[in-house]
Write a structure and sequence with these properties.
Membrane topology: Multi-pass membrane protein
Low-confidence stretches: none
Protein name: SNF family Na+-dependent transporter
Main location: membrane
Number of helices: 7
Keywords: Membrane, Transmembrane, Transmembrane helix, Transport
Distance between the termini: 24 Å
Shape: extended
Radius of gyration: 22 Å
Strand content: under 5%
Number of domains: 2
Subcellular location: Membrane
Number of strands: 0
Length: 173
């Protein structure tokens, strides 16, 4: 509602949080305090998420390539720095480089949100519904016999079709 009131584009994606919320906070009593608390909390959430992501990559490199933690961390943080620089430069220095009419950030957004996330969801639902043993599923999904059969039907047939349809529509936009 605030976005429409102040003429902000609701289709601007995740960046909308940095456009809409400051406007909303400025309209509130002691909004500056709430703004600081909110964006501090958002920063903490982003950092803790990144730590979990980075740690899994470092552990993977240590296990698969049999390298030290220090070397794995240097590789991971170097890759993050490189990709971050590509992201930063896509707003200025590399802004004229486009693939299918999209800059680096827009391209990675489409790749992740419209291809990788639906593909990951599809693979997870297929694996859980078709490859995990029925006994394990029954032990983990405590819905009773009728609820379990409904869940299994939905996971095997409804969810994959729904994910494919949603992914197809998101790619056609």
């Amino acid at each position: 509602m605030i976005g429409f009131t102040f003429g902000l584009n609701p289709a601007s994606g995740p960046g909308l949080i940095f456009e809409t919320l400051p406007v909303a906070f400025s309209q509130m009593p002691i909004g500056r305090l709430f703004s600081i608390l909110f964006f501090f909390s958002l920063s903490c959430a982003a950092i803790t998420t990144m730590i979990g992501f980075v740690e899994s990559l470092i552990s993977f490199l240590m296990d698969e390539w049999n390298i030290s933690r220090r070397r794995a961390a240097i590789i991971v943080f170097s890759a993050i720095a490189l990709l971050s620089m590509l992201s930063i430069f896509s707003y200025n220095t590399f802004s004229h480089f486009k693939v299918y009419g999209r800059d680096f950030n827009a391209l990675t957004d489409v790749l992740v949100n419209n291809i990788l996330l639906p593909l990951g969801g599809l693979l997870i639902v297929i694996f859980s519904a078709w490859f995990i043993s029925r006994r394990t599923l029954l032990d983990q999904i405590k819905l009773g016999p009728i609820g379990f059969r409904l869940w299994l039907f939905a996971a095997r047939f409804v969810a994959p079709i729904a994910i494919i349809i949603i992914a197809a529509f998101s790619l056609t936009e």
